[in-house]
Amino acid sequence: MTVADLDRVMEIAAxxxxxxxxxxxxxxxxxxxxGAPRRIALVAESGSLAGFAVASVVMPQAELETIAVTGGxxxxxxxxxxxxxxxGELGAAGVKDVLLEVRASNAPALGFYxxxxxxxxxxxxxxxxxxxxxxxxxxxxxxx
Length: 144
Prior knowledge:
Elements: H1 6-14, H2 24-30, E1 38-45, E2 49-58, E3 61-69, H3 78-92, E4 97-103, H4 107-115, E5 119-128, E6 133-141
């Protein structure tokens, strides 16, 4: 992801209810190579920017902070390919496990992550607000 991608990335996120609505400063921090924690941020293109993913790296783990795909790119394998590229970069960096959290009511995301091999590792009761609900914690062991 580059600074040139940020307007489109923010537009994609704004159009998706479940995507985090970060500020421009938060996205700039995510792509800052000197930032801490270190982050890997990728975009997917399919004629135009179709999605993006951001993971923070705190060895030997990474947290998938977001993965978002345009409505037109959903159910077309864009997110799966994007995550595969991200997992490849994380694995090359020495990451062993990828962690994430997702709203308990977000059945499409839970199905997607479980389809990638993520396993539930716990819950955070009443973690989310508006509406209040649990966060489901998921974990994936990367293959060496």
